Fold this sequence. Notes:
Blueprint: H1 21-29, H2 40-47, H3 51-63, E1 68-71, E2 77-80, H4 96-104, H5 111-130, E3 133-134, H6 136-142, H7 154-166, E4 171-172, E5 181-183
Antiparallel strand pairs: 1-2, 3-5, 4-5
Amino acid sequence: xVESDTRERNEHGQFADRIPAQEALAVFExxxxxxxPVTAGDVADALDCSRRTAHNKLGELTEQGIVRTRKVxxxxxxxxxxxxxxxxxxxxxxxxxxxxxxNDVELPGxxxxxxxxxxALLAAYDYLSEHPEAKKADFLRDVFPDHRAExxxxxxxxxxxxPALRELPGVDxxxxxxxxxxYLGGD
Length: 187
């Protein structure tokens, strides 16, 4: 004869939850390396619960939009706390000289379209400052999709953005088409 589980059940007959999802969120906050994603095993170890329970808690946090998840193998998944999108807010770390230069370069358009294109230019600049060696393909893959700026094609976007990017401080454009852009930093 099997002994019955004596845990509390809710009104639907499911086991009552003894571990709130917020405790799983504390695992993210306790990491020394804030960039490292978290696994269900990490949460299970930290909360002394089963992997299934950890998965459920991470699922709740994902549904609430607090964390994001991605499959990384046939049966593996990781979770992370997303970084806030600051693409529409002024970048506190960007030097005013860069913003001023971006406002001075010539880009096609006017009004809101021109402002979106300036934001796309600054996003390309920020990308280059974070990736000090980048090719055209990198900008098209990593910047263009989130900063289309009313351009119909990636090629049209690049044809407008790259001449303006050349004018910004610390940017060392390639000598030949298709080669590596460098970020030199500083003034």
